[in-house]
Amino acid sequence: MKTRIISAFPSSGKTYLATHGWEGNTFMDSDSSSFSWLADGITRNPEFPSNYISHIKSNIGKVDYILVSSHIDVRRALSEEGLCWSYVVPDKTLMAEWVGRCYLRGNPDGFIKALVVNWDEWTKNSLDPLPNALIKLKGGEYLTDRIGLLNCVAYN
What's the pTM value of the predicted model, to 2 decimals? Predict the structure, then answer.
């Protein structure tokens, strides 16, 4: 089975895609939060992101697509591991739309504030590190609208 790894920005539709599918493909929505925090929910796990990358690698070949976090540390680790991965990020002009998406899906106020404060930095760094494929979502677009363009295979 060929597996594609997609690092996608929050509220781009990872969970929707994993739940509803696309053209008969299998998906795994790999939430990084259980790997990045210790049990107290306050302290960063010192093994992150290597523990998360190990989890991702252990699922290569089991599903068609692994949907992963867009944290810069995760993207750098994917590149350092030599994995083929694609990055999906909103166009930087879409902050208001993304804030609205996060609000509607019930993200906590602290997350939404962090999104606003860090928007320019998070959308600017889309090429650090350089992904194997980059898709910039336009207004009203979700991952399901563009997934057919992402053919970077992590494992064959």
Answer: 0.89
